[in-house]
Amino acid sequence: MMKEYRTIHEISGPLMVVEQVEGVTYDELAEIELPDGSLRRCKVLEVNGDKAVVQLFESSAGINLKGSKIRFLGHPLQLAVSGDMLGRVFSGMGQPLDDGPAILPEAYKDINGLPMNPAARDYPNEFIQTGVSTIDGLNTLVRGQKLPIFSGSGLPHAQLAAQIARQARVLGDDASNFAVVFAAIGITFEESEYFVQEFRRTGAIDRTVLFINLANDPAVERISTPRMALTAAEYLAFEKDMHVLVILTDITNYAEALREVSAARKEVPGRRGYPGYLYTDLATMYERAGRQLGKPGSITMIPILTMPEDDKTHPIPDLTGYITEGQIILSRDLYRKGVLPPVDVLPSLSRLKDKGIGVGKTREDHASTMNQLFAAYASGKEAKELMTILGEAALSPTDLLYAKFADEFEKRYVTQGQEENRSIQETLDLGWQLLKILPKSELKRIKQDMIDKYLPQDEQ
After folding, report:
1. Is the dihedral of CA 106, 284, 189, 157 positive or negative?
2. DSSP-assigned letter for residue 280
3. Would you give the DSSP letter of residue 28?
4. Can you tell me the distance from the alpha carbon of 445 to that of 270, in angstroms, rounded to the nearest whole number?
5. If you count DSSP H runs as helices and E runs as strands, how many of each does the chain have, helices first?
6. How many other C-beta atoms can be found within 10 angstroms of the C-beta atom of residue 417?
7. Rounded to an integer, what distance in angstroms lies between the CA atom of residue 13 and that of residue 17?
8. 196-222, pLDDT tens digit by residue?
9. What torsion, rounded to 10 degrees, do the Cα atoms 212, 222, 159, 403 define?
10. pLDDT for 57-79, tens place per residue?
């Protein structure tokens, strides 16, 4: 029989101390019953002898210490999972938000998941097409990879996230076996409606599971939202054999919630007031992405975070960069110039891009054209800086061509409409069209047979 305790000793913000407890374990779920019969959920944060510190998932307002009772449920927070989750919208605690029926669960899964044994990991090496040229062509996303987007306040990362969620797909025989799990963390109601309506308008909702946590929801729910999403993704990937793309936005809101709870627990703060275990905590989420040996499914992750004050050395982007395999960086300067999406190609990086491109994956010319475009754009940016300092007359004819290339590259390759879904072939062909601006003698990173085969011949 489940024990009930009437020994709530103290409440401080989202935390509560319960005394004289027995057999209580870390992370265990509990229910508080108020005198009026209403229930509030919480989880165990700390056990010290016969005292337990629990963290409330809702507000602590109105809890009467003497009249309330608490019972520990003997298991951690769980998500009811089923194949019917696709096409549904849930709260950060896994409750349906779309007026649909409750999910008939095939299983209940601990939202903390199980760490993937490194020896059981399969190496990511298969291409995922996002339809966005700056990602597919230059910073290729590979199945099983973790590729974050570093943005800034006010930049259109929400639109880019929605576009990737709508357009992303795997090529070949697995194309129909693809799903998106989208977790919105600490966003406004307006942003939440944008995501839901955008997915419904385009029909992408049918293959998507949405978890939405609003800015006015409790901080503790914000901490559970990405774990709910990853639990759903693990179920679809490793039990339903699907290829799942997980998009988490905004990780900065998650880290702020973690800092808030850490301060309430009176923990010693680390850099900028964030808890010292921020790296470990982020790693427990990010490392749930990947592929497992012997299982056809995969989890690919795109965490999106807004860098406070556009500072790449801030703890959140800094630690995220250590754990993940690269980063896509959005530029405020490009955004001011009207380039959308404002992806800053040069500092962006996908460490696994070489594994997902080439013959049988994208096209034989992908690697060499990617390197040539990077080099030409970097030279064009240098030429434009020289032009600003010394004037146009100081540049050689080749430098002027590189400057023209940089402008055209931003205008035609980086700039892309929100509804424009480019296939990898279209992206590669567009790259060749731009390389036509430069003399053949400058295409030093591409083999001659590739130039003869793919460089457009009409206007050389």
Report:
1. negative
2. H
3. E
4. 46
5. 12, 22
6. 10
7. 11
8. 999 999 999 999 999 999 999 888 889
9. -160
10. 888 888 888 889 999 999 999 99
